[in-house]
Amino acid sequence: MGYLMTMRKRIGHIARDLFLIILLIYTLAPFFILFFNSMKTKEDFYLNPFGVPKTFNFSNYSSAWVKGGYTEAYLNSLLICCTAIVFVVLFACMAAYALAKMNFRGQNIVMTYFVLSMSIPVSLFLVPLFFIFKTVGLMNTIQGLIIIYIAIYIPFNIIFLRSFILGIPSLILESASLDGCSDWGVFWYIILPVSKPALFTSALLVFLWSWNEFFYANAFISTGSLKPVSTRYLAFTGTYATDWTLVCAAGMISILPIMTAYLLFQRNFIEGLMSGSIKG
58, 66, 63, 69: which is closest to 35 by C-alpha? Predict the structure, then answer.
């Protein structure tokens, strides 16, 4: 019986490892195909579209960067992402602190409102926002796009940060209040420093969402010089659809910041998510 149990465990481990390997290959294969094709010449691409390039041609990246206007696109996306991060993380943390540690009338109603707001498809806001932005002069502006991102990303981050702040012992906050610390002082000197892992995770999420967001960016930004990376890539593929090596190079340029952020901060990102779930 012991031998059979050992064999079953080994077979189970082998099956699990094989499944994970297949899943890894399935996940990474499109990325490597994109990368290899971005390094090929046109002739090499048409002769071998799914293989390793014979010679690595880095000139595709410089051509795609210049022809696609990615300098402007990167600056626009970075401005949008950084501004959205500051406002979303700050406002969400303040709201999360109030909902987690302060007792006030209608607290449950406010929480229900934020939860329900996340269940509404973002496409339903398109027509009302279009008329409102057209009236107030925010159409085709980066400021308008930033306002939209702040509004749609705040609810999730409030709930996420609240789950973390709930795990902070209330005794610490009460002791600070007895020592004469105001609610703002408690938030600034206790909540913010203790919540750094969750705040970092929240900031990284907002960066990833803002950089990849396409629906509102495509609907509200029509001027080429104001387009972020996500919509600039769409315009590039429409212009250079016949040159797949340039299209692949532009694709790599578009996803490079996301890949870099994940590779550099994946440990902090996972720690923030785990700490928030455990404390919640």
Answer: 58
